[in-house]
Every structure is written in C-alpha cells, then in structure tokens.
Design brief:
The complex is a heterodimer of chains A (114) and B (131). Chain A has 114 residues and is mainly alpha-helical. In chain A, 74% of the residues lie in helices and 0% in strands. Chain A contains 5 helices and no strands. Chain B is 74% helix and 0% strand. Chain B has 4 helices and no strands. Classes of the chains: A mainly alpha (114), B mainly alpha (131).
Chain lengths: 114, 131
Amino acid sequence: MPLQNNPPTHGDPGLQPERTDLAWGRTTLSMVVAAAIFLRWLPHHGWFVGTLIAAAVVTALAINLTRKRRFHRAIHGIQQENMAPNIASTAAVAVSVVILAVLGIFTVLFLPLT
Amino acid sequence: MTATNSQGSGRSGFSARILGGGTEPDPRFTLANERTFLAWIRTSLALLAGGVAVEAFMADLFAPELRRTIAVLLLVLALVIGGGSFFRWLNVERAMRHKTPLPLPWIAPVLAAGGALVAAVMVIFVLVRAT
C-alpha cells in the first residue's frame, strides 16, 4: 500500500513539483545570504540598513511559510492537468528584489562609509 | 470541470487580465517557467550581494571611486535583471497561453553585457593603477 497522502502523490516522473519547491527554497537561501552581506553596513548606517535586512529576511520567511501551499498546488495542478500560474508569488519576489536593489544603490550613492 | 478556460481555474479577473486570456498550458510548462524565473531571481540576488560586498568589504583594497562604480554597476544590473525576470516570466506565460513562439530573453544579453562591463571597468582600473 502507498504511504498516507501526506504529501499527496502526483505520478509525474519529471518530479516537477519537487523541483519547483526546491527552486523556491534555494531562492530564500540566496535572499538570506544577500541580507547577511548587508549586515556589514549595519555599524555604518544603523537603522536604515537594519530595516533593509529585516525586509529581506521577512520576505524569505514569507516564501518559506507558503512553500507547502505552493507545493500542494503544483501537485494538484499536475493531477488535474490544469494549473493557473503563480502570479502573486512571482510578483512579490520580483518587487522585493527590486526594492532591495534600489535601496542598495541609494546607500552606495548617498550614505558615505564613515 | 472543463480542463481549460480563458479565466484559468477560478482566478480573479485581475490575474486573467494580466495574463491576457488564452488557455492554461501544460502545468509542467507553467512550473518550468516558474523555476526559470526563480533562477533569474537568484542571479539578481547574487549580483545584489556582490554589489553590496564590493562596497562594504573592499574599503581597504579599492579606491573609493572604483568601489562605488563597481558596486553601483552590479546593483543596477541586479535591479534590471530582477525586474526584467518578472516581465520575462509574464511574457513566456502569455506566449504559452496563446500557443505563440516564446519571446527572446532580452535579460540574457543585458546580463552578459553588464558582466562584461563590470570586468572591463576592473581591467581599466588595474591597468591605470599599475602605470
């Protein structure tokens, strides 16, 4: 007998739901690493950079907390042969990366290292 | 339940409008597009981390103007790749929904040119310093 449906099974030999889930996991890891490098600015720029780091970590955390939901949605999509694209997740990640980059540029240009 | 319809499976009108109608493609293609988007986002995050690292860790090694130039170039590249990856994802999704050829990835040449530009700036500064 197969194991209990936790997580549900999908019968896709390409393991697309698993690979997509792991891709999200790597992305959160990259985001935390990027935030960790911002830590070097903390003694120079204080709360401004602190907010930046907090924003990146919160984004990574939010992605991780919704991973299971996305994984199950993908499995369901494979089962049904019909899946709507994840527009909210992709937009949220892209927007947070853009915000981080803009604030990073602002820091380099307008907040001198002391 | 019909397998495909123009609204997607119970999507809001907003999402349907952004995706521009058409029919849902094979879910494997949707997931593959999502993974490709995430790979671009990680590229952007690596550039972001690199840009911040150059500014934050190279204070004793690089002249301030070199440091700032390289950091801003990398961060602008991260910004363009990060923002562009979403539009790339959206355009691929739209093309798949309408069964039209996939669009060319303009962020790929941008990344290549940007990387080459950063390297060229480094080379010029090293040569100038050596003389």
